[in-house]
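General statements about sequence and structure are easier to judge against a single worked case. Part of our work consisted of pairing the sequence of a single chain with a tokenised description of its backbone. The amino acid sequence and the backbone structure tokens for this protein are reproduced below.

***
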Amino acid sequence: MKSSKTLLLQFLFLSLTHLTVFSLSTSQPTSHHGLENILLKFSQWRDNQLSSQDTYPNTNTIIACIICFIAATVSTACGVGGGSLFLPILTIVAGLSLKTATAYSSFMVTAGALCYIIYALFFMEKSPINYEIVLLSEPCMLLGVSIGVLCNIMFPEWLITALFALLLAITTTKTVQSGCKIWRDETEKERVKVQVEEGERGAEVPLLVNEREGKENGAQNMVPWKHLVVLVLIWMCFFVLHILLGNKSGKGVVDIKPCGITYWLITISQVPIAIGFTSFILYTKKKEHEHTDHAHGTEKASVIKSKLESLPMYVFPVAAILTGALSGLFGIGGGLLLNPVFLQIGIPPQTAAATSSLMVLFSASMSMVQYILLGVRRINEAVMYAVLCFVASVVGLMTIQRVIEKSGRVSLVVFLVSSVMALSTVIITLFGVIDVWRQITNGEYMGFKLLC
């Protein structure tokens, strides 16, 4: 495993060095051979796809809908959003521009996340959503997204592509390792269960830990209106600031000069808002835990504490701000990065998928509403894709839930996550390399850019 990681890092380093040296060259290629010829043909095919978007509906749109349906079925079921799959499908297959595809993707991710939350709240016996994690993470994640967007403006495309490929390759490997570990634990648990059924003694400790935690978590399968109100309040605060700031092009509901005094005051105000909400939530949770310790006694409280509660509370805000910054930098939804982070922390797969879906719902819906207010082209087509993803998400959730119930293997969710991540790594890396290659051949500037 170590040797494969070393080879992967060496390959990415050599590729990054090649791109850097090639970008500094001022000479234009006169002929194309090998990989360059393939990239040229693919780029020309993509240009033809982009030119065909004016004829709607067409065959490309129908094919894109079918592929998006399949992608939404898998991605929503494992709680990774699916934006990293939707963007290449919409741009390459449907022939949409990157700007339009990004807007459509926010509609589709929001629909998929909404479907998961409705399913978890009203159709599952035990809700797997951990609202404490969402409350602790959401303000810092939204702040991190804003920081990542600023970095995205300054960083060159080749650097973003290389960093994204490296990060996804590492997290995919870690996720596969987590899935294998959970699979082994499930196998051991099944073996112990057979021994208990056969009358053998002394096997009850490793068997009942997860089941006991599941019962404790599942007892609160009610709509937590108090937590949802706080989350909506956080969403509204950041949404108002984003609407005032506008999008990357400086388009907003209010005419604010980009990089002016008002612009920076609004931007910096996100920091105290995130710190204020997080501090208040941390203080509230600390009081609740102290009250629980007094009510149940020290010994009993230590027994009923789950692995989640034993973690320091600051872990989730720190992880959220880093995840949000990477999401904003790479221009993707947070689900693709949140889910692996939760799995590495030690959160059960279904809880990780459901919790990341709720967080993605708030972040993706913010982008969706912003696109609506600022005017997105062909909004009826965007709604059509969103409805398609909602239906696909229902199919995916029902299917994966039945498979888990019959097999007893929650690790299947982890392997689904790793599969989506591996596919995203290949697609987005290829997509980024094509764009970088086009910039190189066109002689475009490929260094760091100023923020203003």
